[in-house]
Structure to design on (1137 residues):
């Protein structure tokens, strides 16, 4: 029965609106997490969505249609629209129409609920190619086809019950420390524990593969390390860049009892170590001498008996890694990200190859609990002088964006902000190298770009961490996976044309909890396209409840 | 394809009507005549803006209502028109339609339906009561037949889904046939429709459903309403809730709905008709990402006009987008109006809306002709390459008389400067007024009196005195004499013709919807003794402004009657129009 004081509004388009100010909101969120996806979590109403996939994921972890409907009913403020109930029940019943069962190491058996489904599979062009050879009411399929076949079946609207167990991989004893190697107390936070539980699903058939979405600075790496320790298996960790690979190695050494010689870096040059815990970058994995050649390192890494593969910043997964992921469908897979937003719209492929979203927590929740820093976002509008505005008015589209982004008047604003936040750790970040070089020259702070050798970059990051450098000027190389715990001010002098995840990741650089609040400044030329780009860039963060004050710089 | 005025004249119109129109508007027709020539001459005649204005100005209330109804649904047959304007009795309605057709304000097609003349801008006469100001541009044609045809074509009439494959094919088909269907809307729509068929005993009876397609619009209406409120939701869902479909249905069917159905129907119709909702809103959430959700809005809320509605459901979800907000400003909503519709909006949202408002305030265009800019913007406009070609004359430091013929081009140039240019209309001043006086000649003999529209020949004495005084004060020598003659001949109708700099101060008119402009205008008049004509629900009268008390949307003004000295205090929001009285 619906209750007038319920926190949930169930819409007939399968979205759920959760009133976060309601006394039952937290309890309700925990209950609906299992069969919904969190879409956005601003200040008042959090939006969740029920999808075919979210229903099937819930089914794979043991929930049934009555349980889902009863949960909705118990929190809903209004009666549940009949179309929603129909959708839930219909899709719950369709789960398992196609089933995968283990045969031997190299094959699995695909069985269909009935002759109709079998004929349906044979008639689907995108499925047919993977079916292997017929066997009774089903098919015998090679294990390598498991990933792509599953993707194709999901696209065709068929819920697969995958009963092929995931490979255990080789055992590796990993103990978490209570005190880090650097001497600080260490304990896993409750939400990190919850994220692992959601991923692992107590070892049931549907668990052990999936994506965890947590804000920047909230300790996603710890969730990965926790998974390694709890599963106690050999692990391959894939990262977006070398700096973050090194960071993983540092963190594992710092937080676990693993010896250094058990951790390897599969990197450029001589650093091609395959060890029980191996860290490799996406670019290394997808490197090949020319377009026609095989991915050389692919095979070497895919052939190892990994018990767990971790994809750091999984939203950045390059398309060739999709192939790698589909080849290791029998492994446990954990995707980690803060912003599962891909400008190429391939989020669904990430879900189907790495695993569905298992855990997502609103940024505002963690901020409220003090696990990430409170950040104040400011959009500062800066005038272009008359001649620049005339140049801007007569320029073409792309040139307009550049003129606005490079507005020389921004320099004075940067200077004022540096004075205002003197003594704090400050990052200045921008899109245009020329602009950054000019700022570096004027202010005398070190500049880090993609052209700088990794070693030098890391030295500068280290100097920043130690406080020897208080200000760094960085290009987009610092967008991701760089842990600079003390940074509390970020000045974005220019940005991409509207990349939502870039904005969020940049904010993430200053979200590590610290004594003081953080400030994120984005500098925008007034009356220019930059205003629109900026608004688009802010979409992800504002959907998380972050407010930008818009201020005219005088 | 819709009939245009040109094709109507050239191909569709009967010979007798063509000759009748030619005789009425062009004078006696010489025989033999060429149909194409006659049609071209009539087209040219009706394309003249003065002619159009005259035609529109002669409309009575009933005529406006009929045109509004047709504007709303785009195309109308006699029976639908009867449903839309039940207040006009049948015989009177027929006579009016005939008369409007002879005035070329309506055109008819071969099926006996009527549409509006596509060359005329009707916006000044459309009945706001009927249109609620917004639906006019976005209303869809009522097309129940297409909706049901889509259901049939998608296979929904064949009975329950028997297989996932058929189910998918049906849903895909439905989406293809109803492109406005919201994402994910096919399934709930299909489910609702199938329920409907079941209730009507038509499930699985393909032939019976097919016969629906040959039914009349009214019969389809009865079918859709047979299942009660779901039909309305269904139709609204099919139109993605964004357009006039739901409201059209409401208007057409409203009197047939019982109370329960009506209250449910409110859910889909109230976004187009917020005045229907009474009582306080229970939930209105304004989020930092500019999204807005509500279950019920307070009566008269302007919010629906400034948002893009995504979904009307148990709760309505919408977004404040730049396009929609700027458009609302363009239509007279003030920032204050908008903010008062968004109680509890986060500061970031208010900042953003304010910045959009500010961007509309730097450059204003009056009548697509006179451009007024802030000093900084004016400086840029003067220097902007290519702009000089479109400036007829500078007026004062920050004003420009622009070429109306190239309005699209110079607006494009201005947008390059990042300015949102609203189409604000202030006082009546035309390019022709200026050109006649300033450029064409000083010689009244060259200006045939017969060409003057009638109203220009009848200036009231007060205005004439003001103009005469201005000519004496501002002009000298030959120019002064010439202008006096022009005044006598009826060519001088506005102080701006004498002194362009006078433009912004004289006879200013402020729209009732522009709250900020009302406040600022009243403030400028406060205590000066100058008269302003105030139009309220009770009518129009001249007053002087004694005091203004500003307090957001509940600001009030104290006025003193120009004749009797009687004082009264009224809410600023209750003022429909302000017009400065030239004394």
């Amino acid at each position: 029965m619906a209750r007038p004081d319920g926190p949930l509004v169930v819409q007939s388009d399968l979205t759920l609106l959760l009133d976060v100010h309601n006394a039952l909101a937290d309890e309700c969120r925990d209950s609906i997490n299992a069969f919904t996806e969190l879409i956005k979590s601003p200040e008042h109403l959090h939006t969740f969505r029920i999808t075919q996939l979210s229903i099937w994921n819930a089914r794979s972890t043991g929930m049934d249609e009555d349980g889902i409907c009863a949960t909705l009913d118990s929190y809903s403020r209004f009666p549940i629209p009949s179309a929603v109930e129909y959708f839930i029940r219909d899709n719950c019943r369709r789960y398992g129409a196609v089933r995968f069962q283990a045969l031997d190491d190299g094959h699995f058996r695909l069985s269909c609920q009935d002759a109709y489904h079998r004929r349906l599979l044979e008639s689907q062009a995108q499925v047919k190619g993977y079916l292997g050879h017929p066997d009774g009411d089903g098919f015998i399929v090679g294990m390598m086809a498991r990933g792509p076949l599953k993707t194709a079946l999901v696209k065709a609207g068929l819920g697969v019950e995958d009963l092929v167990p995931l490979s255990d991989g080789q055992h590796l004893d990993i103990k978490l420390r209570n005190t880090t190697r650097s001497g600080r107390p260490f304990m896993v936070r409750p939400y990190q524990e919850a994220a692992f539980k959601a991923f692992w699903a107590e070892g049931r058939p549907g668990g052990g593969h999936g994506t965890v979405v947590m804000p920047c600075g909230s300790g996603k790496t710890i969730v990965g390390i926790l998974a390694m320790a709890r599963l106690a298996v050999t692990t391959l960790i894939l990262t977006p860049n070398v700096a973050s690979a090194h960071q993983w190695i540092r963190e594992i050494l710092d937080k676990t009892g693993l010896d250094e010689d058990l951790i390897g870096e599969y990197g450029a040059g001589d650093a091609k170590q395959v060890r029980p815990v191996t860290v490799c970058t996406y670019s290394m994995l997808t490197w090949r001498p020319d377009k026609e050649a095989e991915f050389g390192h692919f095979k070497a890494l895919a052939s190892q008996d990994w018990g767990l593969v971790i994809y750091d910043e999984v939203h950045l997964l390059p398309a060739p890694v999709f192939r790698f992921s589909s080849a290791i469908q029998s492994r446990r897979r954990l995707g980690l990200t803060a912003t599962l937003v891909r400008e190429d719209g391939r989020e669904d492929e990430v879900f189907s190859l790495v695993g569905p979203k298992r855990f997502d927590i609103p940024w505002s929740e963690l901020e409220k609990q003090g696990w990430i820093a409170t950040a104040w976002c400011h959009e500062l509008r800066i005038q272009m002088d008359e001649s620049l505005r005339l140049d801007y008015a007569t320029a073409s589209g792309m040139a307009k964006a550049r003129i606005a982004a490079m507005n020389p008047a921004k320099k004075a604003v940067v200077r004022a902000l540096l004075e205002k936040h003197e003594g704090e750790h400050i990052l200045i970040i921008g899109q245009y190298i020329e602009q950054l070089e000019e700022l570096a020259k004027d202010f005398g702070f070190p500049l880090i770009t993609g052209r700088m050798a990794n070693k030098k970059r890391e030295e500068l990051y280290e100097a920043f961490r130690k406080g020897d450098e208080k200000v760094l000027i960085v290009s987009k190389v610092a967008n991701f996976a760089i842990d600079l715990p003390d940074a509390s001010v970020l000045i974005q002098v220019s940005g991409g044309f509207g990349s939502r995840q870039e904005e969020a990741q940049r904010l993430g650089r200053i979200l590590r909890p610290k004594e003081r609040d953080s400030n994120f400044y984005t500098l925008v030329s007034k009356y220019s396209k930059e205003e629109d780009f900026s608004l688009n860039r802010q979409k992800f963060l504002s959907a998380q409840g972050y407010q930008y004050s818009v201020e005219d710089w005088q | 394809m819709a009939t245009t005025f040109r094709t109507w004249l050239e191909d569709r119109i009967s010979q007798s009507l063509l000759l009748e129109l030619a005789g009425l508007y062009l004078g006696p027709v010489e025989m033999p005549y060429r149909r194409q020539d006659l049609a071209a001459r009539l087209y040219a005649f009706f394309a003249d803006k003065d002619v159009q204005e005259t035609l529109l100005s002669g409309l009575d209330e009933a005529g406006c209502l009929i045109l509004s109804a047709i504007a709303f649904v785009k195309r109308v047959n006699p029976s639908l028109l009867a449903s839309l304007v039940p207040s006009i009795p049948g015989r009177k309605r027929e006579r009016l339609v005939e008369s409007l057709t002879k005035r070329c304000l309506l055109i008819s097609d071969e099926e006996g339906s009527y549409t509006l003349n596509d060359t005329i801008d009707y916006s000044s006469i459309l009945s706001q009561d009927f249109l609620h100001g917004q639906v006019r541009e976005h209303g869809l044609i009522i097309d129940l037949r297409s909706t049901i045809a889509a259901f049939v074509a998608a296979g929904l009439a064949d009975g329950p889904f028997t297989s996932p494959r058929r189910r998918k094919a049906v849903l895909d088909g439905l989406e293809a046939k109803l492109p406005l269907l919201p994402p994910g809307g096919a399934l709930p729509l299909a489910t609702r429709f199938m329920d409907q068929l079941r209730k009507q005993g038509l499930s699985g009876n393909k032939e019976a459903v097919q016969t629906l397609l040959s039914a009349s619009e009214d019969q389809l209406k009865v079918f859709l309403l047979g299942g009660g409120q779901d039909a309305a939701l269904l139709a609204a869902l099919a139109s993605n809730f964004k357009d006039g479909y739901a409201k059209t249905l409401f208007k057409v069917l409203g009197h047939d709905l019982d109370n329960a159905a009506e209250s449910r129907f409110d859910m889909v119709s109230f976004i187009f008709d917020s005045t229907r909702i009474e009582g306080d809103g229970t939930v209105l959430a304004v989020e930092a990402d500019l999204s807005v959700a509500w279950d019920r809005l307070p009566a008269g809320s302007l919010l629906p006009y400034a948002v893009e509605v995504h979904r009307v459901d148990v709760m309505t979800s919408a977004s404040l987008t730049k396009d929609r907000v700027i458009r609302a400003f363009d239509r007279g909503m003030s920032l204050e109006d908008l903010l008062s519709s968004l109680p509890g909006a986060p500061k970031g949202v208010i900042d953003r809306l304010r910045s959009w408002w500010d961007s509309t305030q730097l450059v204003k265009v009056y009548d697509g002709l006179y451009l007024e800019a802030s000093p900084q913007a004016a400086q840029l406009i003067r220097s902007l390459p290519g702009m000089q070609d479109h400036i007829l004359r500078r007026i004062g430091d920050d004003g420009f008389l622009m070429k109306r013929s190239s309005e699209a081009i110079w607006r494009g140039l201005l947008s390059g400067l990042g300015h949102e240019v609203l189409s604000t209309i202030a006082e009546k001043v035309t390019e022709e007024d200026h050109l006649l006086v300033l450029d064409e000649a000083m010689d009244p003999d060259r200006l045939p009196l017969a060409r003057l529209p009638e109203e220009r020949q009848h200036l009231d004495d007060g205005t004439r005195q003001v103009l005469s005084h201005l000519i004496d004060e501002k002009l000298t020598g030959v120019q002064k004499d010439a202008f006096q003659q022009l005044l006598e001949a009826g060519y001088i109708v506005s102080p701006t013709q004498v002194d362009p700099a006078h433009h912004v101060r004289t006879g200013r008119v402020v729209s009732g919807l522009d709250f900020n402009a009302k406040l600022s205008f009243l403030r400028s008049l406060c205590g000066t003794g100058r008269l302003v004509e105030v139009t309220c629900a009770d009518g129009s009268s001249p007053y002087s402004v004694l005091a203004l008390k500003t307090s957001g949307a509940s600001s009030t003004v104290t006025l003193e009657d120009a004749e009797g000295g009687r004082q009264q205090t009224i809410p600023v929001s209750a003022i429909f129009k302000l017009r400065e009285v030239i004394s």
